[in-house]
Predict the structure.
Amino acid sequence: MFGVPYIMSAFCSPLLGLLIDRFGKRAFITCVSSLILVSGFAMSMMMPECHRCYNEMYPLVFTGLGYSLYSSAMWGCIPYVVSPRTIGTAFGLTTAIQNIGLSAAPTIVGMIKDKTKNIGHGYFWVCAFFVTLNIITFLLNLSIYLIDIY
């Protein structure tokens, strides 16, 4: 089941990218994607523990949609904010920063899970961590959106 966000992203990202290229509104879409991710992780956080249940499918679908929207909108913004001769460097730096996050996050998640294993509630605190990150991301995306408006 945890492959659902990535499968969704594989199929949805090209279609969403096409729509974003056609209609624009990248800054607004990044805000929407952050809210979708907050909703998905909050849903997962509030669900009761259940073994052999498929109720986690809904939050995973939200997560996949949020990831797809965000990547389709954000990666397309890079050529708009750097000079044409530095696009390769900008993509390289963006990938490096993303990979730092992708390597640090599992360690942080593991530490949270280890520290809260006696409390119970499965991945409640892990989801709380992701909700917090996505709220921060929403605020940063909102500031980009407001700058884009003005």
Summary: The chain has six helices and no strands. The two ends are 42 Å apart (CA to CA).
